[in-house]
Amino acid sequence: MVRRWRDTRGICLLALDFPHHLPVGIIGAIATLALMPNYTMQTRRFDVVGFLLLATGMATLTLALDGQKGLGISSLTLAILIVIGMSAILWYLWHARGNDRALFSLTLFKNPYLPAWTVRKF
């Protein structure tokens, strides 16, 4: 954020909010490196296909849900977006089934409390 003010001589000075946050960030990074334990986790390869499918599905469905009112998208384009989004999500579900490297495991949806949590959030 940029702020402007005038000094005592009437000259317009320009001050950025960034510089005073820099020392705090450096102190925080040093404290994190010094105080946090070094846990080593077993890593796995990133599921690029799953990410692309989920990102495509969620982005096109979000655009379809907001597009008709906010952007004035035609009904045909809206239908195409919904078909692309739903097919990408369904393709991800097919991709994640039995895949140990899946971005989100499908066993998350076996939780009996998930429908109640979902309804409560809306």
In short:
Helix content is 56%, strand content 8%. With 122 residues, it is mainly alpha-helical.
Q: Could you explain how this protein is built, in words?
A:
By secondary structure, the protein is mainly α. The chain contains 4 helices and 2 strands, in the order E-E-H-H-H-H. The protein has helices at residues 22-35, 48-71, 75-96, 114-121, and strands at residues 2-6, 12-16. It has a two-stranded antiparallel ribbon. A hairpin with a 5-residue loop joins strand 1 (2-6) and strand 2. Helix 2 packs antiparallel against helix 3 (75-96). The radius of gyration is 24 Å and the shape is extended.
Topology:
Blueprint: E1 2-6, E2 12-16, H1 22-35, H2 48-71, H3 75-96, H4 114-121
Antiparallel strand pairs: 1-2
Helix pairs in contact: 2-3
